[in-house]
Design goal:
The structure holds two protein chains of two kinds.
Chain A (H helix, E strand, L loop, with lengths): L1 H32 L4 H6 L5 H10 L6 H13 L13 H36 L4 H15 L2 H15 L24 H7 L3 H38 L2 H8 L4 H31 L1 H6 L5 H11 L2 H29 L5
Chain B lengths: L1 H16 L10 E6 L15 H10 L4 E3 L7 E3 L2 E6 L5 E6 L13 H14 L4 H7 L6 H4 E5 L2 E5 L6 H10 L8 H5 L9 H6 L7 E7 L3 E6 L12 E6 L3 H10 L4 E3 L3 H7 L5 E16 L9 H8 L4 H8 L4 E3 L21 H10 L6 E8 L4 H14 L2 E8 L1 H9 L5 E6 L8 H7 L15 H5 L4 H11 L4 H18 L3 E14 L2 E2 L15 E2 L3
Parallel strand pairs in B: 1-10, 1-11, 14-15, 14-16
Antiparallel strand pairs in B: 2-3, 4-5, 5-7, 6-7, 8-9, 9-10, 11-17, 12-16, 12-17, 13-17, 18-19
Helix pairs in contact in B: 11-13, 18-19
Classes of the chains: A mainly alpha, B alpha+beta.
């Protein structure tokens, strides 16, 4: 029994290793195939050839590709991800710096997504074929199919420019930049810890709109999935039995049917959260949100391969972690897996 | 369930309706710009206009040019300067009351070290100095400390002293660095380059408080500034890529200055009550360039035909407003040497005839490279349509700066819609050397910083004239040499056809006073004030 558990864990680790290795190799190959010259990004288009050659050599680009790849893997295994061209700082420091912005945005978005999407899905399933169900499906379809970029711009015009309800770009009013201590990198927490209530309100106003728009996609995804899971459960025999036993409808839905979809729901919430973390690129661009998505996009456009490789590896790790987490949750909540 | 949804909706409304603040504090200037090109703060490596703007407020230069009239030279760190009788050197006398932000006094030793450092590091901005003849090998012999507050800068060859003076005033490599402070952070003989990439060591009107790459730069007033005390307490520069967001924010007063907005957004701000639009000419030129390595395009008649298919008026009237102004000469507008416009215009019939006489009556197929952004791509499309009318089938290859200028540097292009040619200094050479000079046309020469070399166009007489003009100290003679360059270039149909001179357009809130966009991109904020509410 113990031996098979160890074997299972070893297999899982092997799969993780191969996944990450494959991800890195693919990114490296794609990065080298991209028609972007990172040297030009550093020296500018008007540099003379001696400056170009000097930086070319400093970046190690004169070595054969497989040698570059070997050295890169070697550096990474020793924990050295190198410096980013984009920022002149160690890549690890950059990722640590930009990550809280995205985590904060994605967390508020997922709270909104779960808070609205799951009840909507349950409501649609319990009112199947009725007006509420159709409306829910239309709303979720809208949220799913409307380009986030467009919704972001329209949202800015309505809620910022016309109504003056929300903040515009950035994580906080620009005048508050540097006016409070950054303890955690999460502005909603840091502003409170610093006792700067005005800055907290500003941070709240700035996160509201991008988080709601980003969360709209999760509302749709989670709403549709919840509806589908619930419909499956509501057609089961045990639900009929519960109803025949005279349990209240509320009890049948929430204590029996909903309880049984929790495990599946946790998995898709974890995946949706992962998706928000790496999928916030467009929202981060519209709202000038200095997060991970923007960092990765800028690095990619700059041909900054150190930053791109480390970022891709990080995204891979996030998904591996979320998959592991959902496995653990399965084991915790689903007695059949014990 | 209904109650729950009501609570959720209520929470969302609460999030959106928390107290709204707008308008920036009167002691802070909030500037929004795209920070894509701000990769390093090190003056020896910092390329691009945006970083020149930032460093102009963190550092000082020996001398400055008046932004209202860039031909007027103003004292800065140097209180006085004198060109030697033989015209081969300049002696600078420095103010003796200047301290760096660190508290270290600024002396001639710092200036000498700063200039040497640019060439010893041989990074992006060494190119400017190398074009004048300074090298890693000769710089130590050419710049020397005469006294604690006095130094001499010799010329490596006969040069118009104005050119050196203008370079010291406009090149972002000429910001004077605190030697002692930087050397404390030197790693592996890098002369502090790694440290200066993300830090500053200047004596400017503002100190660097915070730089988060691609996010923000915060500068605080230098209360020990040796010159006039700045009125602003803080300057916050924020990375904002979306032009429409910039427009909405400046309209609402959440930012004071917006740099790099798209033309539709600038247009919509024209006539806005609280926003002024400033348009300042820069010396850089927009051009259509052809490669002389393409046998067809190397034909003079073909080049003339292409020159005659560019819709100069149409492009300047419909595409270039806020990007550039009509100009067809390789020297920027406003200099005494600039000849009147040759007034090239579209002439499809004549262009067809030229192609016929060149033996290409059935046209040919070619490519146009252009940046995938306005106005380049729009000009490329316009040119493509016009070329099609005379039978030239051109495919557009659009991409990033890397893909377009990288191909040009490698001489792998046919036609390109580009922008370049320096032009920071109010001197014809600052355009002509980067645009037309090509002293060695061989591939091995790799003169990638010269656009003349990139196109493969070489005219010995033009080379000779540019080289002699730069060492001519008599203005009248010098101007006549530059005029001759333009005439020959026109008659010989060079490979690069300027169609517009760049302008920089900035939106500024009306509460902001004294913001004066600098033609060399070194906009200084020390005189900016804001009217309070």
């Amino acid at each position: 029994m113990i031996r098979s558990r160890w074997l299972g864990a070893a297999k899982k680790l092997g799969v993780i290793f191969i996944t990450l290795f494959g991800l890195l190799t693919m990114t490296f190959v794609i990065g080298r195939l991209m028609p972007i010259d990172p040297v030009l990004a550093v020296v500018g288009p008007d540099a003379d050839s001696s400056t170009y050659e000097q930086v070319f050599l400093q970046m190690g680009l004169d070595r054969p590709i497989w040698v570059q790849y070997f050295y890169y893997l070697q550096d990474m295994l020793s924990g050295d991800f190198g410096y980013a061209i984009l920022t002149g700082s160690p890549v690890v420091n950059d990722i640590i710096r930009v990550l809280p912005a995205t985590i904060e945005l994605a967390s508020v978005a997922i709270i909104f997504g779960v808070g609205l999407g799951v009840p909507l899905g349950v409501y649609a399933a319990t009112h199947r074929g009725r007006l509420g169900d159709h409306l829910t499906r239309i709303i979720t379809l809208f949220g799913y199919s409307t380009p986030v970029f467009w919704v972001g711009m329209v949202g800015l015009i309505i809620f910022y420019a016309w109504l003056n309800w929300a903040g515009a770009a950035g994580r906080i009013g620009f005048a508050y930049d540097g006016m409070f201590v950054s303890y955690t990198g999460f502005y909603l927490i840091d502003t409170l810890l610093s006792g700067n209530i005005d800055a907290f309100i500003s941070a709240l106003r700035h996160i509201a709109l991008p988080a709601l728009i980003l969360g709209l996609n999760s509302v749709s995804f989670l709403g549709r999935m919840t509806r589908s899971f619930m419909l499956e459960q509501l057609s089961q025999e045990y639900v009929k039995t519960a109803r025949v036993k005279g349990l209240s409808e509320r009890s049948v839905i929430w204590k029996h049917a909903f309880k049984n979809i929790l495990v599946q729901l946790l998995t898709i919430v974890a995946l949706a959260y992962g998706g928000l973390l790496e999928g916030a690129v467009l929202i981060e661009t519209v709202f000038a949100w200095p997060g991970f998505g923007q960092y990765l996009t800028d690095s990619l456009l700059m041909g900054d391969m150190n930053a791109v490789m480390a970022s891709v590896l990080f995204i891979g790790l996030v998904f591996v972690f979320l998959n592991l987490l959902s496995d653990v949750l399965y084991k915790l909540f689903d007695p059949r897996t014990k | 369930m209904g109650t729950y949804i009501k609570y959720m909706v209520g929470l969302v409304m609460l999030l959106l309706t928390t107290v709204a603040y707008s308008n920036t504090p009167s002691d802070q200037l909030i500037i929004a710009l795209k920070m894509n090109n701000i990769l390093s703060l090190d003056p020896a490596a910092a390329t691009g206009n945006d970083i020149a703007f930032v460093n102009a407020n963190l550092y000082d230069t020996l001398i400055e040019l008046d932004p209202r009239d860039p031909t007027i030279i103003l004292p800065a760190i140097a209180s006085d300067w004198e060109v030697a009788d033989d015209g081969m050197s300049i002696t600078f006398i420095l103010n003796d009351n200047i301290n760096f932000h660190s508290g270290n006094p600024l002396t001639a030793d710092d200036v000498v070290w700063t200039l040497e450092r640019v060439l010893r590091l041989n990074l992006a901005l060494a190119t400017t100095w190398k074009a004048l003849g300074y090298t890693h090998e000769n710089i130590s012999d050419l710049v020397s400390q005469v006294g604690e507050y006095e130094l001499e800068l010799k010329f490596p060859r006969e040069l118009d002293p104005k050119l050196v003076i203008y370079t010291l005033a406009t090149s972002p490599s000429a910001f004077i660095i605190d030697k002692q402070r930087v050397l404390e952070h030197e790693q592996n003989g890098d002369l502090g380059h790694r440290w200066l990439t993300t830090n500053s060591a200047g004596s400017g009107a503002f100190t660097l408080d915070q730089w988060i790459p691609h996010d923000r730069i915060i500068m605080t007033r230098n209360n020990q500034y040796w010159g006039e005390q700045p009125s602003l307490e803080r300057v916050v520069m924020r990375n904002l890529k979306e032009s429409q967001t910039m427009r909405l924010m400046i309209e609402r007063g959440d930012i004071d200055v917006a740099i790099g907005m798209s033309v539709p957004d600038i247009r919509s701000l024209e006539g806005a009550e609280n926003v002024d639009i400033q348009t300042t000419p820069r010396g850089t030129l927009y051009y259509v360039a052809v490669s002389m390595h393409n046998d067809i395009l190397a034909n003079k008649e073909v080049r003339k035909a292409i020159r005659g298919t560019i819709n100069y008026d149409g492009i300047n009237n419909s595409i270039m407003p806020y990007y550039g102004i009509f100009h067809q000469r390789p020297i920027k507008l406003g200099l005494p040497a600039t000849l009147p416009e040759p007034m090239y215009s579209v002439s499809t019939e004549k262009a067809r005839e030229l192609l016929r006489s060149a033996g290409y009556e059935n046209g040919f197929t070619t490519t146009i490279r252009a940046l995938n952004e306005s106005p380049f791509i729009n000009v490329a499309i316009n040119l493509q349509n016009n070329l099609e009318r005379i039978g030239i089938n051109a495919e557009i290859i659009s991409g990033t700066g890397n893909q377009v200028y990288g191909a040009m540097r490698d001489r792998r292009f046919d036609i390109i819609v580009g922008r370049g040619g320096g032009g920071f200094a109010p001197h014809p050479d600052s355009n002509l050397t980067p645009l037309l000079l090509n002293p060695d046309n061989s591939d091995a020469a790799k003169l990638t910083n010269f656009q003349g070399w990139r196109t493969g166009y070489q005219n010995d007489r033009i080379n000779e004239l540019i080289t002699s003009a730069v060492s001519e100290s008599d203005s009248a003679i010098q101007n006549s040499l530059y005029e001759e360059v333009q005439t020959i270039y026109d008659q010989d149909v060079g490979a690069l056809f300027p169609f517009s001179q760049m302008v920089n357009t900035v939106a500024v809130r009306s509460e902001v006073e004294g913001y004066l966009d600098d033609p060399a991109a070194m906009t200084r904020l020390r005189s900016v004030t804001k009217r309070g509410e």
